[in-house]
Design brief:
By secondary structure, the protein is α+β, with helices and mostly antiparallel strands. Among the domains are: 98 residues, Alpha-Beta Plaits; 92 residues, PUA domain (Archaeosine Trna-guanine Transglycosylase, Chain: A, domain 4). It is 21% helix and 29% strand. The strands form 2 sheets. Strands 1, 2, 3, 4, 5, 6, 7, 8, 9, 10 and 11 form an 11-stranded mixed beta sheet that branches. Helix 2 packs parallel to helix 5. The longest helix has 19 residues. It is globular, with a radius of gyration of 23 Å. The chain starts with 11 loop residues before the first strand and ends with a strand. About 13% of the residues have low confidence.
């Protein structure tokens, strides 16, 4: 059994096995935006708001409200099967989705936010490892809460050490995780309601155990609900029954509710820095080429850590061009065409404002 907050990897059920970028090549991308569509074989998708229902289902995301009982993998399999059943009616000659991928495994007893990527969108599952998580948990104390309970809890709002539990699916080695926010919402006798904002991969069960040791009475985790997984939260959750009903309405000709439940996969990239590239550059990316500077139209100012280090080759902290592709610490960015279509995920290894050179080294092609 996996632990309740093992977000080290994003789960999947026969997800698209995208091998990542092919040979990076050396083709220089044209900065000219070019036509939106060069023909029926054009690799670029329609803009997110203009896709047909089958296109949406094959490259979408559902923010599923996971109930207690089924595993995350079982719930994902039900999502896949429901979508494929609908595609058999909506587009009988088109392909089915091979799989889905969810954002961090939740224990069967845990409820809440489980964003689920469908079809080709499974290639972007790694984005959920870059974001934070939020939980609401009941802390079951083994004795009366001491007078300084809130002060002790506040000390855990920091970088903490954790070793995964024995039942964890990952290697049990000591590691650090950051708890961004830790609020005591309610406190009554031997029970406390906590809201926890933390780094992906934080074990809330272990955190509750450590809190019990720190306050001196012992404690364990009671009910746990995930309320947010960047960029999604519990304000736009949908149950599996919502999805089934929405698909049935779509099969009957009314896709309004379905477009609320299944969102364009681009919504899962909202928390990442973005780089806008020309359609001609996007077509080169589809063949495995990285993003070159001439193809960059615009970029998020937060995309790069120290732009001056790239602009001034003589700067003491500049990143040598020969080492940029190997810079594992480079920020993960999402590349889009001007109409909002996702093109790829990659690491920003160059200056988006430069006239030449590689700007984004590919990690996943999303076309």
């Amino acid at each position: 059994m996996t632990d309740d907050t093992d977000d080290t990897t994003a789960g999947s059920t026969t997800a698209d096995a995208d091998p990542g970028p092919a040979d990076s090549g050396s083709t220089t991308a044209d900065a000219d935006p070019g036509p939106a569509d060069s023909g029926p074989d054009d690799p670029l998708r329609a803009p997110p708001g203009e896709r047909s229902v089958p296109e949406l289902l094959r490259f979408g995301v559902v923010n599923v409200d996971k109930p207690a009982g089924p595993s995350s993998h079982q719930l994902s399999a039900w999502v896949r099967d429901a979508i494929n059943d609908a595609l058999a009616t909506l587009d009988p000659d088109g392909p089915r989705i091979d799989g889905v991928a969810h954002a961090g495994t939740l224990d069967p007893k845990v409820t809440g936010c489980l964003p689920t990527l469908t079809g080709t969108a499974t290639r972007m599952a790694q984005v959920f490892l870059e974001g934070s998580k939020e939980y609401v948990s009941v802390l079951e104390l083994h004795g009366p809460a001491p007078a300084d309970f809130r002060d002790v809890v506040a000390e855990f709002e920091a970088e903490i050490y954790q070793k995964p539990p024995r039942k964890s699916a990952v290697t049990r080695r000591l590691r650090t995780r950051t708890v961004h926010d830790l609020d005591v919402l309610e406190l009554a006798e031997r029970r406390a309601l906590l809201r926890i904002g933390c780094e992906s991969g934080t074990y809330v069960r272990k955190l509750c155990h450590d809190l019990g040791l720190a306050v001196g009475v012992g404690a364990h985790m009671g009910h746990l609900r995930r309320t947010a997984t960047d960029p999604f939260d519990d304000r736009d959750l949908h149950t599996l029954q919502d999805l089934v009903d929405a698909l049935a309405w779509a099969e009957a000709g009314d896709d309004g509710f379905l477009r609320e439940v299944v969102r364009p996969a681009e919504d899962a990239l909202a928390h990442l820095p973005s780089v806008t590239i020309a359609p001609s550059a996007a077509r080169n990316v589809a063949t495995g080429a990285p993003v070159y500077a001439p193809g960059v139209i615009d970029s998020d100012p937060d995309a790069y850590r120290d732009p001056d280090a790239y602009r001034d080759p003589d700067a003491s902290d500049a990143v040598p061009e020969s080492e940029r592709d190997a810079d594992a610490d480079a920020p993960l960015v999402a590349c889009f065409t001007p109409n909002g279509t996702a093109v790829c995920l990659g690491r920003l290894v160059g200056d988006p404002d430069a006239d030449s050179g590689t700007v984004v080294a590919l990690e996943r092609v999303l076309l």
